[in-house]
Amino acid sequence: GYAAEGSKKLKEGYSKFLDKTMDNEQQAIPAQALADAYTTLSTAIQDVVEKRDADALASAIDSTKALLETAQEGTGKGQYAIGSKAVLQAAVQKAEDILHNEDSTGAQVKSAIQELEAAVQSFAEGKVAEDPKPADPSKPAAPEKPNKPGTSAPNTGDPSSLLGIVSAAVTALAATGGLAGAAIKRRRTK
Fold this sequence. Notes:
The chain is mainly α.
């Protein structure tokens, strides 16, 4: 297919260039004939380079797709950050669009390779190295950040979320005798 055609053009261009530069009869070679031979050779070389770059992009896309198939999102060891697969899939789609666009330039193909490699690197950096540690009950929890608009979870400033937290704390304390013990302790100290 494409590789055979590129090789054929390269051989033809090189042959024409050699024929024009090594005229056995030592005749004067018109400048236009030499320029045409050079253009044919340069075009053939560029076609081979662009084919090599396109093959490298196709290979990078294939290996990234294989990574996506085996990767699992989550918080456990060996898993990837939640939402990171969608980001990497978008990078793959962009690279595929460039690869399949006949009007893509060699610079665009090279840029797509670099962007895909950067996306894979970023994805790999989001891999969880160890299992999450259980929360230490003696340390206060980090403050929650408000949710983005349009999400279903309540914001931390939402009174309904505060009511749920307070009622859960009261229930937990009542179940363990924490409220009764605190009331008895206050009576003894008076």
